[in-house]
Amino acid sequence: MTSEAETARLLLQLRVADFISREARLLDDWRLEEWLALFTADACYVVPGTDDPQADPRRSLVLIDDDRERLGWRVKRLLSGHAHREFPWSRTRRLVSNVLVEEHSANRIRATAAFVVWRFRHRHADPFIGHADYELVEEDDGLRIASKRVMIDQESLAPNGAVSMIL
Amino acid sequence: MNLASLVVDDRARGVFRVHRATMTSEEILAAERERIFSQAWLYLGHESELAEPGAYRRRTVGGRPLVFVRGSDGVIRALHNTCPHRGAIVCRQDAGVAKTFQCFYHAWTFDNRGSLIGVPDEAAYAPGFDRAERSLAPVVGHESYRGFHFVCFDRNAEPLGDYLAGAREILDLVADQSLDGSMRVVKGEQRYSIRANWKLLAENSVDGYHAAPVHKTYLAYLQGTGALLPGTAVVAGRARALGNGHGVIEYRAPWGRPVAHWAPTFGEAAREEIEAIRAELRERHGAERAERIADWNRNMIIFPNLVVNDIMAVTIRTFSPVRAGEMDVTAWEIAPAEESGERLIRRLHSFLEFLGPGGFATPDDVEALDSCQIGFAADGVEWSDISRGMAREPRPDDELQMRSFWREWQARMTGTRRSDWSDRRPAA
User: Fold this and answer.
1) Which of A65, A146, B233, B344 is the most buried (most CB within 10 A)?
2) What ipTM was estimated for this complex?
3) Which residues of chain B from 66 to 95 reach within 8 Å of chain A, CB to CB?
């Protein structure tokens, strides 16, 4: 018999996994404005360097440390047709797995998910492998991302060359 | 292969061409490893990365595994990272602090000065076993200039100071940004690769001509956030050959510079602080030099593979060939050591907005280089053209700084020496 608490935990788990899968689909479909709308007004989006996944972007050089405004510019840039590494857009497929809710309160959820992002371009297939930590908040019309921190497992961005699309 | 014929330098006609075999041939790369990467001074690291005794960084320089380490005696050394016994890598972590290094293969132990201090069952060796000659080997050439450490694998190399030539002055303009007199490499490094020949990044890093078309979205971002300063353009400045293949473009910054040039993206609160630093720089260096430090950008290539770009932040970038069509790149950020808190955050953001694999600009440079490398396979087009600005006083969006690189490249590859890297025409 599954206890009520266990059922609630699994339901939350499913809900978060569903949310993250939908987020992945928006990115694969290059529906970046809809993706951006998943973030809260005070959200942050961080990609640490491959040398130190735990790096604090306020003290260390990382790869990306965006607040909501800069994230908006990132999306605008990628949609402009002048972000040359992504025009034409690369083809990507995100496989998200091992979704775990680590902690939750009434309106805040901390979760983590592993990913493989395949990127195809110029006849190359370059995967990004890693995991992302999320802070999700409950808003009136559903979950929103308050923080997303993407940690890449590779020792170097080789052969990727850049994080030119959004991870 | 006739290496001399790969660069056409016709100053009378104002034509400069480079044969694309220089970008695609593994045979030429093998010659570069021998004549450039085994003979020129190569960047190793900055002294600030080794703050305490025993601090070390594992580095690969010119394809060779090294340990950059500060011994317990305070001395910074460059050691070959290979056991003198049978060859295994002795230091197997990227960074750390250690009193000793022990080879895991047969447990020979070395202190952090590289001296052999322990051999299991040493009695098995003949009498007179010399520990000193079995210590970690220092690189034959190792010198520093204002905190920047370089190595050279050729024991007959000229002193580093002579090699750096005019590049010293540009490094001074970086080092002097600290009011305390010490610069520090910010923690964290960006590692990436590019599917392109290593020399393309030397060219690209000092290329003012590509800024407008390639980095349109970065400029749009600056414009949109009010950070593009009025009345400035990359063309307002000059390009110079600095000697020995080094080159720089210097131009008035169209954007804010964290050291001492305020822009709206830094926030109103930062204005007073930045103005105070400007005033202090003027006090110390005089108006003209202070203005160069505060308001002018410099993109510099130090032959063959070190870039120090003092732009919206200061980056140190080094790169080395993996094969003819691929390179590894490592980039760092360097800042005045006294910067912390909000000041450091401003600088970090200013860096990330443009620079690095996740910036608004560098990914598009990576694409440009990839694209060139793909284009080199096109049959029937053998030469690239680097003639821009050859018949005028060179501007930062001209290509003198690249020609100076290639002139040195040609001299080293053909075993000749040069004394002039400029576009000056030979006397009639």
Assistant:
1) A65
2) 0.96
3) 94
